[in-house]
Amino acid sequence: MDFTLSDEQAQFRDVMRRWVAEQVRPVASRYEREGIYPDELVAAMGEMGLFGMLVPERFGGLELDAVSYGIVFEEISKAWMGLAGILGSHSLATNLILKYGTDEQRERYLPDLATGARRSGIGLTEPGAGSDLQGISTTATLDGDHYVVNGTKTWITNARHADPLPVLVKTDPSADPSHRGMSVLLIDGDTPGFTVSKDIGKLGYKGPESCEVVLEDARVPVGNLLGGTEGTGLKQALSALEIGRVNIAARAIGIATASLEQSLDYAKQREAFGQPISEFQAIKLKLADMATKIEAGRLLMWWAADRFDSGERTDRESGMAKLFCSEVAIECSLEAMRIHGGYGYSTEFEIERLYRDAPLMAIGEGTNDILRLVIARSLLRDGL
């Protein structure tokens, strides 16, 4: 049982750390504060091949192992979690197309998605349906060789850049149970009737846009039905979320690690009552607890990633990793703010941004309470 990175993975992590230190960290706070979209960073990620992390080499991708995939999200999120989000939804979509797309769909989309020439996200959530995906109301009615799609999706990352956008729809609204009538359509960005209606204001997670998407009599070719078979959309979407939860767990560990690193530096520099605050037992206890939970979370994330690479079902493992790591991110960002005192509340320090970014980790790719149910069902079904 090996709990260390391979030489190749460690070297890859070093490359990511240097790039983040040189290119991302110097601009992250200003871009986030001023609402600047990081076009040059997105272009650089494309040149590095990061949009094709999970795409096989035959389609022009990096074909990274899932642990290295997690490393990317952790390292970027130490400096700017929002930037990592641009890769997160995109990678979920590429994995969805790779795993379930027809040969024609893979050949049509994956080469451009791997380079970032095309980007993507995923359209699941609706104003009236989040955790309960079977409750979506977006419909796709077959009309000759096209589906006519009507509905609204919300909280869609990369919506203004998505081409195509995989969208979960009901191709048979009367199906019982509902999931048997659900499908995923790959909707091209220039489809008439496909409109990004507004950007959603957010507490944190600045950088990528989160939008509402309106589909009004949008005509989508039958050839864009993911996998070519109706009625398998919910299974496809839930399966894709397994690797999505690995990237959320990794982003959460990035937030938590940044919180600890900055707390360590501050505690050694800040003096009170004639000594560095790092000498106070109360501060030492906080630092020790943060470090222990971060290491536990990172190993849990790597475990889930390794399980994904094995090709086995990973709903339990990825659910555990996302649940634990996201709670650690929230706890560590709050403790970092307490250690920094008033400075942690100031926009001159990064701590307040980490604190604002952390809560999304407990919501994205399935809320933590939903994941507790997923984990419990797995235990009851399969045992320990």
What keywords describe this structure?
52% helix; globular; two-stranded antiparallel ribbon; Butyryl-Coa Dehydrogenase, subunit A, domain 1; 13% strand; four-stranded antiparallel beta sheet; Butyryl-CoA Dehydrogenase, subunit A, domain 3; 10 helices; Butyryl-CoA Dehydrogenase, subunit A, domain 2; single chain; 8 strands; 384 residues; alpha+beta; 3 domains
Describe what this molecule looks like in 3D.
There is one protein chain. The chain is an alpha+beta fold. The chain folds into 3 domains: 7-115, Butyryl-Coa Dehydrogenase, subunit A, domain 1 (Orthogonal Bundle); 133-231, Butyryl-CoA Dehydrogenase, subunit A, domain 2, CATH 2.40.110; 235-382, Butyryl-CoA Dehydrogenase, subunit A, domain 3 (Up-down Bundle), CATH 1.20.140. It is built from 10 helices and 8 strands. It has helices at residues 7-34, 39-47, 66-79, 81-100, 103-115, 233-269, 281-309, 315-340, 351-357, 368-382, and strands spanning 139-143, 146-157, 165-170, 182-187, 194-199, 210-221, 271-272, 275-276. It has a 4-stranded antiparallel beta sheet, covered by helices on one side. Strands 3-4 form a two-stranded antiparallel sheet.
